[in-house]
Amino acid sequence: MTTYSEQCASCKWYVGAIGEYGDIRCLAFSKGIPHEILSGQQGHREPYKDDFGIVWEKDTDYVHDDQLRERRLAEISDYLDELKKLERNPACPMCGINVHEVIYGMPAGPPSFGYFAAGCVVDEDSFHYKWWCRKCNILIDDDSIAMSDLARKYHAFEKVDKREFQRSARILQSIWRAEQGYDIGELRSRNGSRPLGSRLVMPWARDSLSNYLNENIKSVVCEEVMNPAKSKGKLYGKPRIFNDLLSSQPLCFNLFGELKRDLPLATEVMKTLTNGMVDSVTDIEFEWSPGRADPDLTGDRSAFDVYVTFSSTDGSKGFIGIEVKYHENLSGKAASYRERYEQIASQMNCFKETSLESLKRQPLQQIWRDHLLAGVHRIANGFEEGFFVFLYPEGNTYCSEAVTRYRGCLTDTDTFASWTLESVVSAIKRCTDEDWIDLFVDRYLNFEKILTYVQ
Description:
Elements (H helix, E strand, L loop, with lengths): L13 E4 L6 E3 L8 H4 L21 H5 L1 H21 L13 E5 L10 E5 L9 E5 L4 E4 H12 L10 H17 L4 E5 L2 E5 L7 H5 L6 H12 L1 H4 L8 H4 L4 H14 L1 H11 L4 E11 L15 E9 L4 E8 L14 H10 L7 H4 L5 H16 L4 E8 L4 H11 L8 E5 H11 L3 H10 L3 H6 L2
Parallel strand pairs: 3-4, 11-12, 12-13
Antiparallel strand pairs: 1-2, 3-5, 5-6, 7-8, 9-10, 10-11
Helix pairs in contact: 7-10, 10-17, 11-16, 12-14
């Protein structure tokens, strides 16, 4: 019987190493066989993450061909030995594998596996980059390595975080959790569970509402989320709204909960943000829709994360429908297309016809659908004023790039605006000195704090 230690060498799907720094590959893992499978720590008779359903099958040539067997076993053994030597080097902040040290200039001979020759042509910035990742094919500086090490310390290193803001946001939330003295939560998957610094423990997080900044905000959450009559039909993500520190749903309550409790304060803030359009805020709702799945509207289940109603200076009624983002990368699967979307787009008369195909796809589709919901709500329900706001942190480049592209699809922006979290915070700070907004900034936007934790 073939043992785990020989499973890759004896598999009919084995390909081997490709290139000087190439990871050992097979048909199931075209970008490199996971270390735990290659080393025999993990069997592969059953499907494993990212294997496309291709599992171990006996290679009859391996059984009968001694030279083939010796060559494969030697290739795997040598490769694992080289990886072992790399363990003294730091891990790539993007993918997590151990990196190679960079050599500048021309070495006397070909560098060994642990080194990468960067060549002779260097500029004044070149020596800042001391490491190279064979998988990502990028040069890396010590500052990035330090951030990566900090992420691991707080169980906040996740490969899904491809850009600096996403990595920093997860670290910041993990540090906040630790500063509050909250136990670390876990991420569960088909491969088991592991600690995740940006999660709280369930059901404690639900019972304590510790994802929320103060008792006033918690009381709003109790009324809006925990009350079945109030939350019926609303798409609150559970348990995410309780235990996920990165989720934008808790952020909505942490930013707008106090404004719901204090409508005069909300009025002053919205006056500032709308250049005086708002005269008086009359209500603030969460996860609100004028009619889910209503065929006279968008026909889908779209809703605004935050919905503000107001009276304008001339006494007319208006609304602001707000979509809130924080850590999101806008890369989720696009919703099914509906012909109703184009009908509403024609009614609104603010979209370039040449842009419709782009609007049907991510990262623009969700922005478009919420904008359409605002537009048809204004038309169908007789509002004199009403517009959609896309709200996000200024450092989230996925969002800022999508907003730039979206604006390029419009012929006018009367019903669309983009605000940053920083601009909303600034408006609130001009209107109040209460400490809850400082707590919000410290938790969500104080990225300078991370530098004090980097060793």
